[in-house]
Protein backbone atom coordinates (compact mmCIF):
# COMPACT_ATOMS: atom_id res chain seq x y z
CA UNK A 1 0.00 0.00 0.00
CA UNK A 2 2.83 2.38 0.79
CA UNK A 3 4.20 1.75 -2.71
CA UNK A 4 0.83 2.69 -4.21
CA UNK A 5 0.89 5.97 -2.27
CA UNK A 6 4.38 6.66 -3.60
CA UNK A 7 3.14 5.95 -7.13
CA UNK A 8 0.52 8.68 -6.83
CA UNK A 9 -2.54 6.74 -5.69
CA UNK A 10 -3.40 9.55 -3.28
CA UNK A 11 -7.21 9.40 -3.34
CA UNK A 12 -8.32 6.66 -1.00
CA UNK A 13 -11.80 5.23 -0.72
CA UNK A 14 -11.78 4.20 2.94
CA UNK A 15 -14.67 1.76 3.26
CA UNK A 16 -16.49 0.13 6.15
CA UNK A 17 -19.13 -2.56 5.64
CA UNK A 18 -21.91 -2.10 8.16
CA UNK A 19 -22.30 -5.16 10.44
CA UNK A 20 -20.59 -7.33 7.82
CA UNK A 21 -20.23 -10.57 9.78
CA UNK A 22 -23.85 -10.30 10.94
CA UNK A 23 -25.39 -9.72 7.51
CA UNK A 24 -23.71 -12.08 5.02
CA UNK A 25 -26.62 -13.91 3.25
CA UNK A 26 -26.28 -17.65 3.83
CA UNK A 27 -27.64 -18.76 0.45
CA UNK A 28 -25.27 -16.58 -1.57
CA UNK A 29 -22.37 -17.42 0.72
CA UNK A 30 -22.88 -21.18 0.33
CA UNK A 31 -23.16 -20.72 -3.43
CA UNK A 32 -19.68 -19.18 -3.46
CA UNK A 33 -18.31 -21.79 -1.08
CA UNK A 34 -19.55 -24.52 -3.46
CA UNK A 35 -17.51 -22.93 -6.24
CA UNK A 36 -14.39 -23.78 -4.24
CA UNK A 37 -15.37 -26.95 -2.33
CA UNK A 38 -17.05 -30.06 -3.75
CA UNK A 39 -16.79 -32.36 -0.72
CA UNK A 40 -20.40 -32.82 0.47
CA UNK A 41 -19.39 -33.59 4.08
CA UNK A 42 -17.40 -30.37 4.34
CA UNK A 43 -20.27 -28.37 2.84
CA UNK A 44 -22.72 -29.90 5.33
CA UNK A 45 -20.36 -29.05 8.18
CA UNK A 46 -20.14 -25.41 7.05
CA UNK A 47 -23.92 -25.17 6.82
CA UNK A 48 -24.26 -26.56 10.35
CA UNK A 49 -21.73 -23.99 11.49
CA UNK A 50 -23.77 -21.18 9.93
CA UNK A 51 -27.10 -22.40 11.28
CA UNK A 52 -25.96 -23.13 14.83
CA UNK A 53 -28.58 -21.81 17.25
CA UNK A 54 -27.99 -18.44 18.91
CA UNK A 55 -28.84 -18.31 22.61
CA UNK A 56 -29.76 -15.08 24.41
CA UNK A 57 -30.94 -15.88 27.91
CA UNK A 58 -34.01 -18.10 27.57
CA UNK A 59 -34.46 -17.18 23.90
CA UNK A 60 -32.79 -19.01 21.04
CA UNK A 61 -33.15 -18.97 17.26
CA UNK A 62 -31.54 -20.25 14.08
CA UNK A 63 -29.78 -17.45 12.16
CA UNK A 64 -30.69 -16.84 8.51
CA UNK A 65 -27.72 -14.61 7.77
CA UNK A 66 -24.25 -13.78 9.10
CA UNK A 67 -21.37 -15.87 10.42
CA UNK A 68 -20.68 -16.48 14.14
CA UNK A 69 -18.59 -13.70 15.68
CA UNK A 70 -15.20 -15.12 16.63
CA UNK A 71 -15.94 -18.33 14.76
CA UNK A 72 -12.81 -20.13 13.66
CA UNK A 73 -13.72 -20.11 9.95
CA UNK A 74 -15.63 -16.81 9.89
CA UNK A 75 -12.65 -14.84 8.45
CA UNK A 76 -12.22 -17.46 5.70
CA UNK A 77 -15.92 -17.32 4.80
CA UNK A 78 -15.73 -13.52 4.82
CA UNK A 79 -12.88 -13.65 2.30
CA UNK A 80 -14.72 -16.13 0.08
CA UNK A 81 -17.82 -13.94 0.00
CA UNK A 82 -15.90 -10.80 -0.98
CA UNK A 83 -13.59 -12.53 -3.47
CA UNK A 84 -15.81 -11.66 -6.50
CA UNK A 85 -15.79 -8.02 -5.34
CA UNK A 86 -11.98 -7.97 -5.48
CA UNK A 87 -12.01 -9.25 -9.06
CA UNK A 88 -14.80 -6.85 -10.06
CA UNK A 89 -12.87 -3.81 -8.84
CA UNK A 90 -9.56 -5.01 -10.29
CA UNK A 91 -11.15 -5.60 -13.68
CA UNK A 92 -12.52 -2.04 -13.51
CA UNK A 93 -8.95 -0.77 -13.17
CA UNK A 94 -8.88 -0.03 -9.44
CA UNK A 95 -6.18 -0.91 -6.93
CA UNK A 96 -7.78 -2.62 -3.94
CA UNK A 97 -6.14 -3.55 -0.63
CA UNK A 98 -8.30 -5.84 1.51
CA UNK A 99 -8.08 -7.97 4.64
CA UNK A 100 -11.36 -9.76 5.51
CA UNK A 101 -13.98 -6.98 5.61
CA UNK A 102 -11.48 -4.10 5.87
CA UNK A 103 -10.51 -2.64 2.52
CA UNK A 104 -9.24 0.44 0.73
CA UNK A 105 -9.51 1.36 -2.94
CA UNK A 106 -6.57 3.46 -4.13
CA UNK A 107 -7.04 5.93 -6.98
CA UNK A 108 -5.08 8.65 -8.76
CA UNK A 109 -7.93 11.16 -8.95
CA UNK A 110 -10.94 12.21 -6.93
CA UNK A 111 -13.24 11.42 -9.87
CA UNK A 112 -11.88 7.87 -10.00
CA UNK A 113 -12.40 7.48 -6.24
CA UNK A 114 -16.01 8.67 -6.58
CA UNK A 115 -16.56 6.15 -9.38
CA UNK A 116 -15.09 3.41 -7.17
CA UNK A 117 -17.48 4.38 -4.38
CA UNK A 118 -20.50 4.21 -6.71
CA UNK A 119 -19.46 0.78 -8.02
CA UNK A 120 -18.82 -0.46 -4.50
CA UNK A 121 -22.23 0.66 -3.27
CA UNK A 122 -23.95 -1.04 -6.21
CA UNK A 123 -22.08 -4.31 -5.64
CA UNK A 124 -22.77 -4.28 -1.90
CA UNK A 125 -26.49 -3.66 -2.43
CA UNK A 126 -26.71 -6.47 -4.99
CA UNK A 127 -25.02 -8.83 -2.55
CA UNK A 128 -27.06 -8.06 0.56
CA UNK A 129 -24.51 -5.74 2.19
CA UNK A 130 -24.34 -2.05 3.01
CA UNK A 131 -21.52 0.45 3.46
CA UNK A 132 -21.50 2.33 6.76
CA UNK A 133 -22.74 5.85 5.89
CA UNK A 134 -20.53 7.61 8.45
CA UNK A 135 -17.38 5.49 8.35
CA UNK A 136 -17.04 5.29 4.56
CA UNK A 137 -15.31 8.28 2.97
CA UNK A 138 -12.98 9.46 0.24
CA UNK A 139 -9.65 10.67 1.62
CA UNK A 140 -7.62 13.21 -0.34
CA UNK A 141 -4.03 12.54 0.68
CA UNK A 142 -2.79 15.53 -1.33
CA UNK A 143 -4.13 17.69 1.52
CA UNK A 144 -1.90 18.42 4.51
CA UNK A 145 -2.84 16.64 7.74
CA UNK A 146 -5.34 14.38 5.94
CA UNK A 147 -5.24 10.78 7.13
CA UNK A 148 -6.74 7.33 7.06
CA UNK A 149 -6.33 4.27 9.27
CA UNK A 150 -5.98 0.66 8.19
CA UNK A 151 -5.18 -2.56 10.08
CA UNK A 152 -3.81 -0.80 13.14
CA UNK A 153 -1.78 1.81 11.25
CA UNK A 154 -2.40 5.56 10.98
CA UNK A 155 -1.36 7.10 7.63
CA UNK A 156 -1.07 10.90 7.55
CA UNK A 157 0.30 13.57 5.25
CA UNK A 158 2.56 15.74 7.37
CA UNK A 159 1.95 19.45 7.82
CA UNK A 160 5.32 20.75 6.67
CA UNK A 161 6.38 18.18 4.07
CA UNK A 162 4.89 16.27 1.17
CA UNK A 163 5.64 12.93 2.80
CA UNK A 164 3.05 10.49 4.07
CA UNK A 165 4.11 8.99 7.37
CA UNK A 166 2.66 6.06 9.25
CA UNK A 167 2.56 5.10 12.88
CA UNK A 168 0.39 2.93 15.15
CA UNK A 169 -3.12 4.25 15.66
CA UNK A 170 -4.06 5.35 19.18
CA UNK A 171 -6.00 2.17 19.88
CA UNK A 172 -2.98 0.06 18.88
CA UNK A 173 -0.68 2.02 21.19
CA UNK A 174 -3.17 1.72 24.05
CA UNK A 175 -3.47 -2.03 23.58
CA UNK A 176 0.32 -2.40 23.66
CA UNK A 177 0.70 -0.24 26.78
CA UNK A 178 -2.12 -2.10 28.54
CA UNK A 179 -0.29 -5.40 27.93
CA UNK A 180 2.92 -3.88 29.32
CA UNK A 181 1.09 -2.51 32.39
CA UNK A 182 -0.23 -5.99 33.23
CA UNK A 183 3.30 -7.37 33.35
CA UNK A 184 4.88 -4.40 35.16
CA UNK A 185 2.63 -3.83 38.14
CA UNK A 186 4.52 -2.40 41.12
CA UNK A 187 3.17 -5.28 43.20
CA UNK A 188 5.04 -7.70 40.94
CA UNK A 189 7.42 -9.76 43.09
CA UNK A 190 9.44 -11.23 40.23
CA UNK A 191 12.98 -10.07 39.55
CA UNK A 192 13.56 -7.33 36.99
CA UNK A 193 15.37 -9.87 34.81
CA UNK A 194 12.32 -12.16 34.83
CA UNK A 195 9.93 -9.30 34.11
CA UNK A 196 12.07 -8.21 31.17
CA UNK A 197 12.03 -11.80 29.90
CA UNK A 198 8.22 -11.93 30.23
CA UNK A 199 7.93 -8.66 28.29
CA UNK A 200 10.15 -9.73 25.40
CA UNK A 201 7.54 -11.76 23.40
CA UNK A 202 5.05 -8.88 23.61
CA UNK A 203 7.57 -6.27 22.54
CA UNK A 204 9.07 -8.42 19.80
CA UNK A 205 5.67 -9.32 18.36
CA UNK A 206 4.50 -5.71 18.46
CA UNK A 207 7.71 -4.58 16.77
CA UNK A 208 7.43 -7.13 13.96
CA UNK A 209 3.98 -5.82 13.06
CA UNK A 210 4.57 -2.09 13.54
CA UNK A 211 8.20 -1.83 12.42
CA UNK A 212 7.05 0.10 9.35
CA UNK A 213 6.16 3.01 11.65
CA UNK A 214 8.34 6.02 12.43
CA UNK A 215 11.15 5.57 14.93
CA UNK A 216 9.33 7.90 17.33
CA UNK A 217 6.63 5.27 17.89
CA UNK A 218 9.30 2.71 18.79
CA UNK A 219 11.04 5.15 21.13
CA UNK A 220 7.78 5.99 22.87
CA UNK A 221 7.08 2.35 23.76
CA UNK A 222 10.68 1.90 24.94
CA UNK A 223 10.50 4.94 27.21
CA UNK A 224 7.11 3.91 28.60
CA UNK A 225 8.39 0.41 29.40
CA UNK A 226 11.59 1.63 31.06
CA UNK A 227 9.56 4.02 33.22
CA UNK A 228 7.43 1.10 34.38
CA UNK A 229 10.53 -0.93 35.18
CA UNK A 230 12.13 1.94 37.12
CA UNK A 231 8.94 2.28 39.12
CA UNK A 232 9.24 -1.38 40.14
CA UNK A 233 12.90 -0.86 41.07
CA UNK A 234 11.89 2.12 43.22
CA UNK A 235 9.44 -0.17 45.03
CA UNK A 236 12.13 -2.78 45.45
CA UNK A 237 14.37 -0.15 46.99
CA UNK A 238 11.56 0.85 49.38
CA UNK A 239 11.32 4.29 47.84
CA UNK A 240 7.97 5.97 47.40
CA UNK A 241 6.72 8.07 44.50
CA UNK A 242 7.49 7.86 40.80
CA UNK A 243 10.57 6.59 39.02
CA UNK A 244 12.06 10.10 39.15
CA UNK A 245 13.03 9.42 42.78
CA UNK A 246 15.64 6.89 41.66
CA UNK A 247 18.91 7.56 39.85
CA UNK A 248 17.97 7.46 36.17
CA UNK A 249 21.65 7.80 35.28
CA UNK A 250 22.25 4.42 36.90
CA UNK A 251 19.10 2.76 35.56
CA UNK A 252 19.64 3.96 32.00
CA UNK A 253 19.24 2.30 28.59
CA UNK A 254 22.49 0.39 28.93
CA UNK A 255 21.45 -0.98 32.33
CA UNK A 256 18.25 -2.50 30.95
CA UNK A 257 19.99 -3.69 27.76
CA UNK A 258 22.46 -5.65 29.87
CA UNK A 259 19.47 -7.37 31.54
CA UNK A 260 18.11 -8.47 28.15
CA UNK A 261 15.63 -5.64 27.48
CA UNK A 262 14.36 -5.71 23.88
CA UNK A 263 14.55 -2.14 22.56
CA UNK A 264 12.14 -1.44 19.72
CA UNK A 265 14.07 1.70 18.81
CA UNK A 266 17.40 -0.12 18.52
CA UNK A 267 15.80 -2.95 16.52
CA UNK A 268 14.24 -0.36 14.18
CA UNK A 269 17.56 1.43 13.68
CA UNK A 270 19.42 -1.80 12.94
CA UNK A 271 16.81 -2.90 10.40
CA UNK A 272 16.67 0.55 8.79
CA UNK A 273 20.46 0.70 8.48
CA UNK A 274 20.48 -2.80 6.98
CA UNK A 275 17.91 -1.80 4.35
CA UNK A 276 19.84 1.37 3.50
CA UNK A 277 23.08 -0.57 3.04
CA UNK A 278 21.37 -2.94 0.58
CA UNK A 279 20.30 -0.01 -1.54
Automatic annotation (TrEMBL):
SUPFAM superfamilies assigned: DNA/RNA polymerases
The organism's place on the tree of life at top rank: Bacteria
Name this polypeptide is given: Reverse transcriptase/maturase
The keyword Transferase is assigned to this record: yes
Position of the signal peptide: none
PANTHER family linked: NUCLEAR INTRON MATURASE 1, MITOCHONDRIAL-RELATED, PROTEIN YKFC
Family that this chain belongs to: Belongs to the bacterial reverse transcriptase family.
Pfam families (UniProt xref): GIIM, RVT_1
Keyword Ligase: no
Location of the Reverse transcriptase domain: 1-155
InterPro entries: DNA/RNA_pol_sf (IPR043502), GrpII_Intron_Splice-Mob/Def (IPR051083), Mat_intron_G2 (IPR013597), Rev_trsase/Diguanyl_cyclase (IPR043128), RT_dom (IPR000477)
Keywords: Nucleotidyltransferase, RNA-directed DNA polymerase, Transferase
GO molecular function annotation: RNA-directed DNA polymerase activity
Amino acid sequence: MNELLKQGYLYVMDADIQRYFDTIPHEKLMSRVKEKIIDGKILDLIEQFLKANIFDGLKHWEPEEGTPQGGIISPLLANIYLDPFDHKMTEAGFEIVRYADDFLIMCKSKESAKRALRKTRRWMKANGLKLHPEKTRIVDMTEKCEYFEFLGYHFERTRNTHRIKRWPRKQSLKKCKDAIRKKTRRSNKDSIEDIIAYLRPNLLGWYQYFKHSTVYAMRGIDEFTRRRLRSIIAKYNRKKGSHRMIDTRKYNKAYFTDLGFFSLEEAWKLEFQSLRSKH
